[in-house]
Each structure stands twice: as structure tokens, then as C-alpha cells.
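> @MW can you paste both from yesterday?
MW: sure, first one:
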Amino acid sequence: MIIESMIAGALGVASHFKSKDFVRRRLRFTSVVEKPGIGIFTGAAATIAAAPVVAILPVVGPLTAVAFGAAVGTGVALGARQARQGLLPED
């Protein structure tokens, strides 16, 4: 239980920052950042994509897939908002 929570937390933090950085750097010139529900859609897609992997691994449970999906969704939504505002990524 403790190990699962630590893995889910670390995966959530890492995926949030990576997805936010990817959207802000790579997708800022596309029309993808203009869509209002892009964070919800990508979060749900990430949860569905992570579910089979989580089902195979004995150490983690379904909470890990949900944490991963929520982190990706919030990262994409925040990165899209920052890209719309014109905030440049820090190098």
C-alpha cells in the first residue's frame, strides 16, 4: 500500500510536469491549445492507456492509472493555458 502510493505520487508528479512542458513547448503554435476540453480528453485517454499496463504489474493498482491520467490531464490543461497566454518556457 505504501509502495503503491509512492509510485503513484512520483508518476503523477513526473507526468504532470512532462505533459505541461510538452504542451507549452511543442504544441503552442497549433490549434490544439485552443480547444477547451483538451485536458479532460487527454487525462481520460491516459487513464485508459495506462489501465492494461497497471493490470499486468503486481506492485501497482488501479489508483496508479487514475493518478497518472489526472496528472496528465492537469498538466495538459495548464500547459495549454500558459501557451494561450503567451508564456514562454523557461530554458
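MW: second:
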Amino acid sequence: MAEPQLSVRSSRARDLAHRPARRENCSIADIVVRALEAYETRQTGRESAADFYRRISVEAGLDFVLSDKIREDYQPHQGPEL
């Protein structure tokens, strides 16, 4: 199934996204998504989960990637027995 496509109607927005997309050799949609994620992080004052796990790993001096370890050890709960 094809992914939904981003429609940018503003020529200024398109031009602003087009330059870094060309420079980084990625799509305009990737640039827009990253910009919106950065905007959300700044506005809410929260960091992304990936940044949080990276920061905690560095602060704790862990020699493994915390998010990978969580995924590796994750076992879904089967729910309560009724």
C-alpha cells in the first residue's frame, strides 16, 4: 500500500523545505516531518523518546543502547486470569 503523500501548497514553504532536502538527499516530506517534530519538542518542552534514551544511556554510563535493551527484554502481559 502506498504511503500518504504530503501536499505543500505554499510556495515559500516548498522552497524552504526543498533546499535542505536537496542538500541532505532526502524527500521534502522527511524534512517537514523532522521540522514538525523539532517544533513540537520546543513547544512542549519535552524531548523525543530516542533523545531521552540516548541521554539516559550517556548519563548512566551504559555501554548498550537502552531502547534496544527494552525492546529485547519486552514480553507482553497476557492479561489477568479471570
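> thanks! Residues 5 and 79 are 38 Å apart (CA to CA).
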